[in-house]
Amino acid sequence: MSFRANLQYLRAQRNLTQERLAMLLGVSRQAISKWESEKAYPEMDKLLMICDLFGCTLDDLVLGDVSRPAASASAAGSSNVDSSAETASPLAASSKTAGIIAPIAELAQDITGYDEHRRRFALLIAGGVAAIVAGVGIGNLFDSSNSILGATPLNDFLTFLCICVGVIAGLAMLIPGGLSRTDFKRRHPYVEDFYTGEDRSRELRLLVIGIVGGLAAILIGIAVTVYADDMLGVSDGWPNAIFLLLCAPGVFGFVYCGMRYSLLNINAYNKAAEDDRKEHAGEQDVYVKLTGAVCGIIMLIATVIGLCLLFLNPAALRGDWSAVGSSAADGAMFWLPWPIGGVLCGVAALAIQLVKDYRERK
């Protein structure tokens, strides 16, 4: 039997779909399909993973017949087998079978560690954003117009220092979070949806708590700012610091709970991973390429028009650069082609998507 036939036989024996096998091996479903259609061949590490998963040898998988492993073993082994070995063979077989079935029994579980990654990724991103906001908030305590230290030359330095510490702390969480996400998607291009309805309901309740709590914190901060301005006559310094320090946990609640809930959509994860794979392999859909080309042309034309309005208006041609942008005739509206181009890109993308849907239905 060929490798293709052996792989199909093993999948059928274990009742494995291409999607589940892809998840176990850390490849895409299309890779499994190519292996079984003999359009591609797995690398050695994937072959060893297949052997370990199904409990077969590399020779049987690639050159032999996995449907008759006993025949291969008897041909390679000694013909002298005693009665005690024969008695023990059912136990050994059952033990091998248990070893084979064990990974299969866990297929409905999170065998890729996606849930732990989801929680950690949401925590790092939310924590990074909140740290930056909190750093700016603490920096407002040393605002030069109303510093808690009074008038001192250190105010500007302390403000800058607090903002820098907040940004550094935020980046220390945002960058590892983004890199871990990229690495996880590379190692697991397909993940089986193992979440239950109860899991989604629990995360939805957490999302509601995060939104309500975040809004409450921000509204309290606004109330403090308004009170300080109207009743105490203080508009800078500590009121802004309190507002931003209350915004930090509010933003954390929005981002953390929102990301935890949105990352439950494993279908979107799999689709994004597959789109990335197609992009890197040059297998993008023709409509995706067409959309990118049309939008690129639109924005290039918008850029040319914007630059012409900026550098070829009457004031610029006279050499009076101080008057550039002073009126519509002198290039004040040079920025307008870019938002118009963005709107036209949206229209073009919708039109191309409609054409694609129409052709797929025919």
UniProtKB/TrEMBL annotation:
UniProt cross-references to CDD domains, sorted A to Z: HTH_XRE
Alphabetically ordered keywords of this record: DNA-binding, Membrane, Transmembrane, Transmembrane helix
PROSITE patterns documented for this protein: HTH_CROC1
Entry's transmembrane regions: 121-142, 157-179, 206-228, 240-259, 286-312, 332-355
A Pfam family recorded for this sequence: HTH_3
Domain of life: Bacteria
InterPro entries, alphabetized: Cro/C1-type_HTH, Lambda_DNA-bd_dom_sf
Any one Gene Ontology molecular-function term assigned to this protein's record: DNA binding
Sequence ranges assigned to domain HTH cro/C1-type in this UniProt record: 7-61
Name of the protein in its database record: Helix-turn-helix domain-containing protein
Provenance organism: Bifidobacterium longum
